Every structure is written in structure tokens, then in C-alpha cells.
# Entry
Amino acid sequence: MIVCHEYKFIFVKTRKTAGTSIETALSSLCGPSDVITSLSSEDEAARTQLGLRGMQNIHVPMMRYSISDIATLATLKRKRFHNHSPSSELRRYLGQKMYSKYFVFCVERNPYDRAVSQYFFKNRKFSEKPPMPEFFETLSTPSMSNWDVYAQNNQIVVDKVLRYENLEHELNEVGNFLGIKIDISSIHAKSHTRTDRRNYWEVIDSESRQIIEARCANEINYFGYQWGNS
# Structure
């Protein structure tokens, strides 16, 4: 997740949608007062190697604490923005004025294709991967669906949801709108973890498909994703 004050945008990071690559590229636009949440140690090292800013300003301003938030200070743990902070949380902790003034965007991906990517990423260290239905059954709906990251009370609360399937073009549109350049062509974070490059409909069995459609029903219905369409 990134909050850039100079260019007045907030990037809300969804899962398995090239978010780390986009975050890395957007870090080049950030100054010392901007919010940049942490990446994995491997991706953070890659960002540092590029000479870009890393994690900074991740603590929620104390002025935004609720009474229940203040109670957490008893454990000496301050509230933090994190990698996949949902838009509802950002609106609360950044303040409605900033949230409504800044351009807020994220990326969504075909849930079937995203699920395959997640399967290979989560099991990348195993030479023998678990059966796909067994794997998906162990996941919660929030870990499979991005819907609640950019929606609240079943209403989308970001300014734009970019489509992963048309990402380069849509990033260019956002860049033109903000007066910036967002180039991820040379950044391929986590792209090496999917070893099976077949189309998702050739990989996903019927039982797994049912699980995905149940867990990701909101985005499938809203964006009109259909089985067999890339």
C-alpha cells in the first residue's frame, strides 16, 4: 500500500494482481513523508537494489485512534498500515478528507486465474503440491477474495479498479490522469513461482472451481468474469 502526497494518490494493494511490482514502481515517486508498507524480505531487497525507498511511515497517526485503538497501546503495539490494508481501514485512519481528495486505485484479476497463481505461490517450496481442492478448502474467503479490500458494505469505495488483464493500458491511463509514469515492464516480482503456464481452465478441476466461485462470487458477478474467458 502506498500513499503519495505530492501526486495525491493512494494505491490499495490486492492479492496476486502484480501489486508488488506496482508498489515497487510507485516507490520511485515517493518522498520522505509518504506511506510505503513493507514487502517480503526478497522483494524489499530488490527494491533497495533499485535505489528506491522502502518501508516508511507505517504507523497510524495517533490522532486517528479510536478508544479501542488506544487500548492496544497497553501491549506497546501501535496500529500500523500493512501490505493489504483494506480501503475501509485506510479511509478511517487517513481521514475521510484525505481519502476523498486523493485518487484511490487498485487492481483486480480474473478470480479463477488468480486462484491458480495463489496455489502455486503458496506451495512454491513443496516439490509435491497438495491436491488443489484440498488447498482451497483450507483458505478463508478473505484470503481468496479481494472484494473486501476495495469494497465496503458491498459497495466499491475506490476511484478505479484496474483490470489485471489489461494492466499496462490501464496503468498508462492512471499515469496520464495523475501526471506520472507507472512502468512495471522491467519488474517481475513473484512471477517465477507459477510453474504451470497452461490456461486456468486446463488446470482447475470441477471441485476447485466450485470453491472459487463460492468464495469469489462478489467480484465474479460485479465484473462479469466467466469461466473460460482469459
User: Anything to note?
Assistant: The chain has a mean pLDDT of 92.
